[in-house]
Amino acid sequence: MTTQWLKLYMPRSLYARAALILILPVVVMLLVISVAFLQKHLEDVTAQMTRAASREVTLVTDVIEHSETQHQAVAELRPDLAALDMKLRFLGINETPVIGNRRWYDFIAPQVESELRALLPDLVAVALPSGQEARLYLQTDLGVLQLTFDRRRLSPTAPHQLIVTVLFFAIIMTTISFLYMRNQLRPITRLAEAAQAFGRGRVVPYSPGGAIEVRAAGSAFLDMRARIERQMEQRTMMLSGVSHDLRTPLTRLKLGLSLLPEGEAAPLQQDVDEMQLLLDAFLDFSKGAAEVAPESVDPERFLRQIVKDACRAGHKVELVKVDGAGTAMLRPTAIRRAVENLIGNAVRYGNRAEISLSVSSKSLRIRVEDDGPGIPPEQRTEAVKPFSRLDPARNQNRGSGVGLGLAIVADVARAHGGVLRLGKSEHLGGLCADIIIGR
User: Fold this and answer.
1) What positions does the domain Histidine kinase occupy (predicted)?
2) pTM
3) Distance CA 292, CA 285 (A)
4) Residue 191 parent element (H or E)
Protein backbone atom coordinates (compact mmCIF):
# COMPACT_ATOMS: atom_id res chain seq x y z
CA MET A 1 0.00 0.00 0.00
CA THR A 2 2.91 2.36 0.67
CA THR A 3 4.01 2.26 -2.98
CA GLN A 4 0.59 2.90 -4.51
CA TRP A 5 1.26 6.63 -4.81
CA LEU A 6 4.48 5.93 -6.71
CA LYS A 7 2.60 4.05 -9.44
CA LEU A 8 0.76 7.23 -10.38
CA TYR A 9 4.06 8.83 -11.45
CA MET A 10 5.63 5.81 -13.11
CA PRO A 11 5.59 5.56 -16.91
CA ARG A 12 3.18 3.07 -18.45
CA SER A 13 4.88 2.06 -21.69
CA LEU A 14 7.59 -0.58 -21.89
CA TYR A 15 9.99 1.79 -23.67
CA ALA A 16 9.63 4.47 -20.99
CA ARG A 17 10.11 2.01 -18.14
CA ALA A 18 13.16 0.47 -19.78
CA ALA A 19 14.61 3.93 -20.40
CA LEU A 20 14.01 4.81 -16.75
CA ILE A 21 15.75 1.63 -15.61
CA LEU A 22 18.65 2.45 -17.91
CA ILE A 23 19.02 6.18 -17.21
CA LEU A 24 18.27 6.36 -13.48
CA PRO A 25 21.35 4.36 -12.33
CA VAL A 26 23.57 6.37 -14.67
CA VAL A 27 22.27 9.66 -13.31
CA VAL A 28 22.63 8.51 -9.71
CA MET A 29 26.16 7.30 -10.39
CA LEU A 30 27.10 10.63 -11.99
CA LEU A 31 25.70 12.56 -9.06
CA VAL A 32 27.56 10.42 -6.55
CA ILE A 33 30.83 10.69 -8.48
CA SER A 34 30.42 14.44 -8.94
CA VAL A 35 29.65 15.11 -5.28
CA ALA A 36 32.44 12.85 -4.10
CA PHE A 37 34.89 14.42 -6.55
CA LEU A 38 33.97 17.97 -5.55
CA GLN A 39 34.05 17.37 -1.82
CA LYS A 40 36.92 14.92 -1.48
CA HIS A 41 39.23 16.02 -4.24
CA LEU A 42 38.62 19.47 -5.63
CA GLU A 43 37.90 21.16 -2.31
CA ASP A 44 40.89 19.61 -0.56
CA VAL A 45 43.29 20.32 -3.42
CA THR A 46 41.98 23.87 -3.79
CA ALA A 47 42.41 24.51 -0.07
CA GLN A 48 46.03 23.28 -0.18
CA MET A 49 46.88 25.35 -3.26
CA THR A 50 45.19 28.45 -1.83
CA ARG A 51 47.16 28.17 1.44
CA ALA A 52 50.41 27.87 -0.50
CA ALA A 53 49.59 30.95 -2.57
CA SER A 54 48.54 32.92 0.52
CA ARG A 55 51.94 32.24 2.14
CA GLU A 56 53.65 33.72 -0.91
CA VAL A 57 51.35 36.76 -0.76
CA THR A 58 52.11 37.15 2.97
CA LEU A 59 55.82 37.15 2.14
CA VAL A 60 55.25 40.04 -0.26
CA THR A 61 53.16 42.05 2.21
CA ASP A 62 55.75 41.55 4.95
CA VAL A 63 58.41 43.17 2.76
CA ILE A 64 56.06 46.08 1.99
CA GLU A 65 55.42 46.69 5.69
CA HIS A 66 59.15 47.36 6.21
CA SER A 67 59.44 49.69 3.21
CA GLU A 68 59.02 53.45 3.40
CA THR A 69 57.88 54.17 -0.18
CA GLN A 70 56.21 52.31 -3.00
CA HIS A 71 59.34 52.57 -5.19
CA GLN A 72 61.47 51.12 -2.43
CA ALA A 73 59.05 48.24 -1.95
CA VAL A 74 58.95 47.46 -5.68
CA ALA A 75 62.77 47.54 -5.84
CA GLU A 76 63.17 45.24 -2.88
CA LEU A 77 60.51 42.79 -4.13
CA ARG A 78 61.72 42.63 -7.73
CA PRO A 79 63.94 39.50 -7.20
CA ASP A 80 61.26 37.79 -5.13
CA LEU A 81 58.50 38.58 -7.66
CA ALA A 82 60.57 37.06 -10.45
CA ALA A 83 61.06 33.91 -8.40
CA LEU A 84 57.38 33.79 -7.39
CA ASP A 85 56.23 34.60 -10.95
CA MET A 86 54.03 37.48 -9.74
CA LYS A 87 53.42 41.02 -10.91
CA LEU A 88 53.00 43.89 -8.48
CA ARG A 89 51.69 47.43 -8.72
CA PHE A 90 50.01 49.96 -6.48
CA LEU A 91 46.68 51.47 -7.44
CA GLY A 92 46.36 55.20 -7.92
CA ILE A 93 44.50 57.46 -5.55
CA ASN A 94 41.26 57.42 -7.59
CA GLU A 95 41.71 53.94 -9.03
CA THR A 96 39.44 51.11 -7.84
CA PRO A 97 39.91 47.36 -8.07
CA VAL A 98 38.74 45.78 -11.33
CA ILE A 99 36.92 42.59 -10.50
CA GLY A 100 35.54 41.52 -13.90
CA ASN A 101 33.06 38.72 -14.60
CA ARG A 102 33.67 35.14 -13.65
CA ARG A 103 32.90 32.21 -15.89
CA TRP A 104 29.42 30.86 -15.10
CA TYR A 105 30.74 27.32 -14.80
CA ASP A 106 33.61 28.31 -12.47
CA PHE A 107 32.00 26.64 -9.46
CA ILE A 108 35.30 26.46 -7.52
CA ALA A 109 35.86 30.26 -7.50
CA PRO A 110 33.66 30.93 -4.40
CA GLN A 111 35.74 28.49 -2.37
CA VAL A 112 38.97 30.12 -3.57
CA GLU A 113 37.75 33.56 -2.52
CA SER A 114 36.51 32.26 0.82
CA GLU A 115 39.84 30.59 1.58
CA LEU A 116 41.83 33.71 0.62
CA ARG A 117 39.70 36.02 2.77
CA ALA A 118 40.19 33.71 5.74
CA LEU A 119 43.97 33.53 5.27
CA LEU A 120 44.60 37.18 4.24
CA PRO A 121 42.96 39.65 6.64
CA ASP A 122 44.03 42.68 4.55
CA LEU A 123 42.42 41.35 1.38
CA VAL A 124 40.18 43.96 -0.27
CA ALA A 125 38.97 42.15 -3.38
CA VAL A 126 39.60 39.05 -5.46
CA ALA A 127 39.36 39.09 -9.25
CA LEU A 128 39.06 35.71 -10.95
CA PRO A 129 37.98 36.72 -14.46
CA SER A 130 37.84 34.58 -17.55
CA GLY A 131 41.23 33.36 -18.60
CA GLN A 132 44.32 32.21 -16.71
CA GLU A 133 44.87 35.28 -14.53
CA ALA A 134 44.09 35.97 -10.86
CA ARG A 135 44.34 39.39 -9.19
CA LEU A 136 44.43 40.06 -5.47
CA TYR A 137 43.89 43.54 -4.02
CA LEU A 138 45.31 44.07 -0.52
CA GLN A 139 45.32 47.07 1.76
CA THR A 140 48.87 48.06 2.87
CA ASP A 141 50.46 51.05 4.59
CA LEU A 142 51.66 52.28 1.18
CA GLY A 143 48.26 51.96 -0.55
CA VAL A 144 46.16 49.33 -2.25
CA LEU A 145 48.41 46.63 -3.68
CA GLN A 146 47.51 44.63 -6.79
CA LEU A 147 49.17 41.23 -7.15
CA THR A 148 48.73 39.36 -10.43
CA PHE A 149 49.70 35.72 -10.92
CA ASP A 150 48.61 32.55 -12.63
CA ARG A 151 45.13 31.36 -11.68
CA ARG A 152 46.30 27.74 -11.82
CA ARG A 153 48.22 28.34 -8.57
CA LEU A 154 44.92 28.68 -6.68
CA SER A 155 42.93 25.70 -7.99
CA PRO A 156 43.20 22.83 -10.48
CA THR A 157 42.99 23.75 -14.12
CA ALA A 158 39.44 23.69 -15.51
CA PRO A 159 37.91 21.46 -12.81
CA HIS A 160 34.65 21.40 -14.72
CA GLN A 161 36.24 19.46 -17.56
CA LEU A 162 36.05 16.17 -15.69
CA ILE A 163 32.33 16.53 -15.06
CA VAL A 164 31.72 17.66 -18.63
CA THR A 165 33.68 14.69 -19.92
CA VAL A 166 31.80 12.28 -17.67
CA LEU A 167 28.45 13.73 -18.74
CA PHE A 168 29.39 13.65 -22.42
CA PHE A 169 30.43 10.01 -22.39
CA ALA A 170 27.46 9.11 -20.19
CA ILE A 171 25.10 10.60 -22.79
CA ILE A 172 26.91 8.81 -25.61
CA MET A 173 26.86 5.44 -23.86
CA THR A 174 23.22 5.89 -22.76
CA THR A 175 22.22 6.68 -26.34
CA ILE A 176 24.01 3.62 -27.66
CA SER A 177 22.46 1.47 -24.92
CA PHE A 178 19.01 2.85 -25.70
CA LEU A 179 19.41 1.98 -29.38
CA TYR A 180 20.34 -1.60 -28.50
CA MET A 181 17.53 -1.73 -25.96
CA ARG A 182 15.04 -0.54 -28.58
CA ASN A 183 16.10 -3.37 -30.87
CA GLN A 184 15.49 -5.81 -28.02
CA LEU A 185 12.09 -4.34 -27.16
CA ARG A 186 10.85 -4.10 -30.73
CA PRO A 187 9.95 -7.82 -30.98
CA ILE A 188 7.94 -7.47 -27.74
CA THR A 189 5.98 -4.51 -29.11
CA ARG A 190 5.36 -6.39 -32.35
CA LEU A 191 4.02 -9.33 -30.34
CA ALA A 192 1.80 -6.98 -28.32
CA GLU A 193 0.46 -5.36 -31.50
CA ALA A 194 -0.29 -8.75 -33.07
CA ALA A 195 -2.05 -9.95 -29.90
CA GLN A 196 -4.05 -6.73 -29.61
CA ALA A 197 -5.07 -6.89 -33.27
CA PHE A 198 -6.15 -10.53 -32.90
CA GLY A 199 -8.17 -9.60 -29.82
CA ARG A 200 -10.00 -7.07 -31.99
CA GLY A 201 -10.72 -9.61 -34.66
CA ARG A 202 -7.89 -8.76 -37.06
CA VAL A 203 -5.04 -10.99 -38.11
CA VAL A 204 -1.79 -9.17 -38.84
CA PRO A 205 1.38 -10.80 -40.16
CA TYR A 206 3.75 -11.75 -37.36
CA SER A 207 6.92 -13.80 -37.11
CA PRO A 208 8.78 -14.47 -33.83
CA GLY A 209 12.03 -12.61 -33.32
CA GLY A 210 14.34 -11.19 -30.67
CA ALA A 211 15.69 -13.02 -27.64
CA ILE A 212 15.01 -16.69 -26.94
CA GLU A 213 12.28 -15.92 -24.40
CA VAL A 214 10.54 -13.49 -26.76
CA ARG A 215 10.74 -16.00 -29.60
CA ALA A 216 9.21 -18.65 -27.34
CA ALA A 217 6.36 -16.29 -26.40
CA GLY A 218 5.84 -15.41 -30.07
CA SER A 219 5.72 -19.05 -31.11
CA ALA A 220 3.26 -19.78 -28.30
CA PHE A 221 1.08 -16.90 -29.50
CA LEU A 222 1.09 -18.20 -33.06
CA ASP A 223 0.11 -21.68 -31.84
CA MET A 224 -2.65 -20.22 -29.70
CA ARG A 225 -3.93 -18.07 -32.56
CA ALA A 226 -3.96 -21.04 -34.90
CA ARG A 227 -5.88 -23.17 -32.36
CA ILE A 228 -8.45 -20.44 -31.78
CA GLU A 229 -8.92 -19.96 -35.51
CA ARG A 230 -9.37 -23.70 -35.98
CA GLN A 231 -11.89 -23.87 -33.14
CA MET A 232 -13.84 -20.92 -34.53
CA GLU A 233 -13.80 -22.44 -37.97
CA GLN A 234 -14.92 -25.83 -36.64
CA ARG A 235 -17.70 -24.21 -34.60
CA THR A 236 -18.92 -22.29 -37.61
CA MET A 237 -18.77 -25.33 -39.85
CA MET A 238 -20.52 -27.55 -37.29
CA LEU A 239 -23.37 -25.16 -36.55
CA SER A 240 -23.76 -24.23 -40.19
CA GLY A 241 -23.74 -27.88 -41.23
CA VAL A 242 -26.28 -28.91 -38.60
CA SER A 243 -28.52 -26.00 -39.43
CA HIS A 244 -28.24 -26.67 -43.17
CA ASP A 245 -28.95 -30.39 -42.78
CA LEU A 246 -32.02 -29.71 -40.67
CA ARG A 247 -33.50 -27.30 -43.18
CA THR A 248 -34.32 -30.13 -45.60
CA PRO A 249 -36.49 -32.16 -43.18
CA LEU A 250 -38.08 -28.92 -41.98
CA THR A 251 -39.02 -28.06 -45.52
CA ARG A 252 -40.57 -31.51 -45.95
CA LEU A 253 -42.48 -31.08 -42.70
CA LYS A 254 -43.81 -27.73 -43.86
CA LEU A 255 -44.87 -29.28 -47.16
CA GLY A 256 -46.58 -32.15 -45.36
CA LEU A 257 -48.35 -29.80 -42.94
CA SER A 258 -49.67 -27.74 -45.80
CA LEU A 259 -51.60 -30.83 -47.00
CA LEU A 260 -53.29 -31.35 -43.63
CA PRO A 261 -56.49 -29.63 -42.54
CA GLU A 262 -55.87 -26.24 -40.92
CA GLY A 263 -57.14 -27.25 -37.48
CA GLU A 264 -54.87 -30.27 -37.26
CA ALA A 265 -51.83 -28.52 -38.71
CA ALA A 266 -51.84 -25.41 -36.49
CA PRO A 267 -50.10 -26.90 -33.40
CA LEU A 268 -47.57 -28.73 -35.53
CA GLN A 269 -46.96 -25.61 -37.59
CA GLN A 270 -46.10 -23.70 -34.39
CA ASP A 271 -43.53 -26.35 -33.47
CA VAL A 272 -42.01 -26.15 -36.93
CA ASP A 273 -41.83 -22.34 -36.70
CA GLU A 274 -40.03 -22.60 -33.37
CA MET A 275 -37.57 -25.06 -34.88
CA GLN A 276 -37.03 -22.66 -37.79
CA LEU A 277 -36.37 -19.82 -35.32
CA LEU A 278 -33.91 -22.02 -33.45
CA LEU A 279 -32.04 -22.85 -36.66
CA ASP A 280 -31.87 -19.18 -37.66
CA ALA A 281 -30.46 -18.33 -34.23
CA PHE A 282 -27.88 -21.11 -34.62
CA LEU A 283 -26.82 -19.68 -37.95
CA ASP A 284 -26.51 -16.15 -36.56
CA PHE A 285 -24.47 -17.41 -33.61
CA SER A 286 -22.23 -19.49 -35.86
CA LYS A 287 -21.55 -16.52 -38.12
CA GLY A 288 -20.67 -14.26 -35.17
CA ALA A 289 -18.36 -11.60 -36.61
CA ALA A 290 -16.72 -13.89 -39.12
CA GLU A 291 -16.41 -11.34 -41.89
CA VAL A 292 -13.25 -11.02 -43.88
CA ALA A 293 -12.01 -7.69 -42.54
CA PRO A 294 -13.37 -4.54 -40.88
CA GLU A 295 -13.98 -1.45 -42.95
CA SER A 296 -14.30 2.26 -42.30
CA VAL A 297 -17.88 3.06 -41.32
CA ASP A 298 -19.67 6.25 -40.34
CA PRO A 299 -21.40 5.08 -37.11
CA GLU A 300 -24.09 7.78 -37.10
CA ARG A 301 -25.23 7.14 -40.65
CA PHE A 302 -25.02 3.39 -40.06
CA LEU A 303 -27.24 3.55 -36.94
CA ARG A 304 -29.76 5.85 -38.61
CA GLN A 305 -30.21 3.28 -41.35
CA ILE A 306 -30.73 0.49 -38.80
CA VAL A 307 -33.30 2.63 -36.92
CA LYS A 308 -35.05 3.43 -40.18
CA ASP A 309 -35.30 -0.26 -41.08
CA ALA A 310 -36.62 -1.09 -37.60
CA CYS A 311 -39.28 1.61 -37.86
CA ARG A 312 -40.36 0.25 -41.24
CA ALA A 313 -40.81 -3.11 -39.55
CA GLY A 314 -43.28 -1.52 -37.12
CA HIS A 315 -41.01 -1.14 -34.07
CA LYS A 316 -40.91 1.97 -31.88
CA VAL A 317 -37.22 2.80 -32.19
CA GLU A 318 -35.55 6.22 -32.10
CA LEU A 319 -31.99 7.52 -32.30
CA VAL A 320 -32.14 10.06 -29.49
CA LYS A 321 -28.57 11.23 -28.99
CA VAL A 322 -25.28 11.42 -30.92
CA ASP A 323 -22.08 12.65 -29.27
CA GLY A 324 -18.98 13.10 -31.37
CA ALA A 325 -18.31 12.29 -34.98
CA GLY A 326 -15.90 10.36 -37.12
CA THR A 327 -15.42 6.96 -38.67
CA ALA A 328 -14.60 3.62 -37.06
CA MET A 329 -13.28 0.29 -38.30
CA LEU A 330 -16.26 -2.06 -38.02
CA ARG A 331 -17.72 -5.18 -39.56
CA PRO A 332 -21.04 -3.75 -40.76
CA THR A 333 -22.98 -7.02 -41.05
CA ALA A 334 -21.95 -8.21 -37.60
CA ILE A 335 -22.63 -4.85 -35.93
CA ARG A 336 -26.02 -4.64 -37.65
CA ARG A 337 -26.87 -8.13 -36.40
CA ALA A 338 -25.86 -7.16 -32.84
CA VAL A 339 -27.82 -3.88 -32.81
CA GLU A 340 -30.87 -5.52 -34.37
CA ASN A 341 -30.75 -8.23 -31.68
CA LEU A 342 -30.74 -5.57 -28.97
CA ILE A 343 -33.60 -3.73 -30.66
CA GLY A 344 -35.52 -6.99 -31.02
CA ASN A 345 -35.07 -7.77 -27.33
CA ALA A 346 -36.08 -4.21 -26.40
CA VAL A 347 -39.36 -4.22 -28.34
CA ARG A 348 -40.12 -7.83 -27.39
CA TYR A 349 -39.90 -7.26 -23.63
CA GLY A 350 -40.84 -3.56 -23.69
CA ASN A 351 -42.76 -1.10 -25.79
CA ARG A 352 -40.04 1.12 -27.21
CA ALA A 353 -36.29 1.39 -27.70
CA GLU A 354 -33.99 4.40 -27.65
CA ILE A 355 -30.55 4.33 -29.21
CA SER A 356 -27.69 6.70 -28.49
CA LEU A 357 -24.20 6.95 -29.97
CA SER A 358 -21.02 8.30 -28.39
CA VAL A 359 -17.80 8.63 -30.40
CA SER A 360 -14.53 9.70 -28.78
CA SER A 361 -10.90 9.54 -29.78
CA LYS A 362 -10.45 6.23 -27.94
CA SER A 363 -13.77 4.40 -28.06
CA LEU A 364 -17.16 3.98 -29.72
CA ARG A 365 -20.28 3.31 -27.65
CA ILE A 366 -23.66 2.18 -28.97
CA ARG A 367 -26.36 2.22 -26.29
CA VAL A 368 -29.79 0.59 -26.57
CA GLU A 369 -32.33 1.27 -23.80
CA ASP A 370 -35.87 -0.07 -23.33
CA ASP A 371 -38.79 0.34 -20.96
CA GLY A 372 -39.15 -3.37 -20.17
CA PRO A 373 -38.59 -5.20 -16.89
CA GLY A 374 -34.80 -5.21 -17.29
CA ILE A 375 -32.39 -7.83 -15.94
CA PRO A 376 -31.42 -8.02 -12.24
CA PRO A 377 -27.73 -7.29 -11.57
CA GLU A 378 -27.06 -10.80 -10.25
CA GLN A 379 -28.34 -12.35 -13.51
CA ARG A 380 -26.57 -10.11 -16.05
CA THR A 381 -23.50 -12.32 -16.30
CA GLU A 382 -25.69 -15.36 -16.93
CA ALA A 383 -27.76 -13.44 -19.50
CA VAL A 384 -24.92 -13.18 -22.03
CA LYS A 385 -24.17 -16.90 -21.99
CA PRO A 386 -25.43 -18.96 -24.96
CA PHE A 387 -28.84 -20.63 -24.54
CA SER A 388 -29.50 -18.70 -21.34
CA ARG A 389 -33.20 -17.86 -20.79
CA LEU A 390 -34.15 -15.64 -17.89
CA ASP A 391 -37.90 -16.24 -17.71
CA PRO A 392 -38.79 -14.33 -14.54
CA ALA A 393 -36.60 -11.33 -15.37
CA ARG A 394 -37.56 -10.83 -19.00
CA ASN A 395 -41.14 -12.06 -19.16
CA GLN A 396 -40.79 -14.79 -21.73
CA ASN A 397 -44.56 -14.91 -22.26
CA ARG A 398 -44.26 -11.80 -24.40
CA GLY A 399 -42.12 -13.52 -26.99
CA SER A 400 -40.17 -16.61 -27.75
CA GLY A 401 -36.41 -16.89 -27.75
CA VAL A 402 -33.69 -19.46 -27.70
CA GLY A 403 -31.21 -17.59 -25.45
CA LEU A 404 -28.71 -16.58 -28.13
CA GLY A 405 -29.57 -12.90 -28.66
CA LEU A 406 -27.28 -11.34 -26.06
CA ALA A 407 -24.66 -14.06 -26.62
CA ILE A 408 -24.43 -13.01 -30.27
CA VAL A 409 -24.10 -9.36 -29.27
CA ALA A 410 -21.34 -10.18 -26.78
CA ASP A 411 -19.57 -12.31 -29.38
CA VAL A 412 -19.69 -9.49 -31.94
CA ALA A 413 -18.39 -6.97 -29.38
CA ARG A 414 -15.47 -9.27 -28.43
CA ALA A 415 -14.63 -9.82 -32.09
CA HIS A 416 -14.20 -6.04 -32.40
CA GLY A 417 -11.98 -5.92 -29.30
CA GLY A 418 -14.82 -4.50 -27.24
CA VAL A 419 -17.30 -5.55 -24.60
CA LEU A 420 -21.04 -5.73 -23.95
CA ARG A 421 -22.17 -4.12 -20.70
CA LEU A 422 -25.64 -4.50 -19.24
CA GLY A 423 -27.21 -2.13 -16.76
CA LYS A 424 -30.41 -0.33 -15.85
CA SER A 425 -31.77 2.47 -18.01
CA GLU A 426 -31.94 5.66 -15.99
CA HIS A 427 -34.28 7.23 -18.52
CA LEU A 428 -36.70 4.42 -19.42
CA GLY A 429 -36.27 2.15 -16.41
CA GLY A 430 -35.63 -1.04 -18.38
CA LEU A 431 -32.47 -2.63 -19.69
CA CYS A 432 -29.50 -0.54 -20.84
CA ALA A 433 -27.12 -2.41 -23.17
CA ASP A 434 -23.82 -0.79 -24.21
CA ILE A 435 -21.61 -2.05 -27.01
CA ILE A 436 -18.20 -0.45 -26.32
CA ILE A 437 -15.51 -0.80 -28.97
CA GLY A 438 -12.00 0.69 -28.89
CA ARG A 439 -10.98 2.81 -31.87
Assistant:
1) 241-439
2) 0.51
3) 17
4) helix 160-199
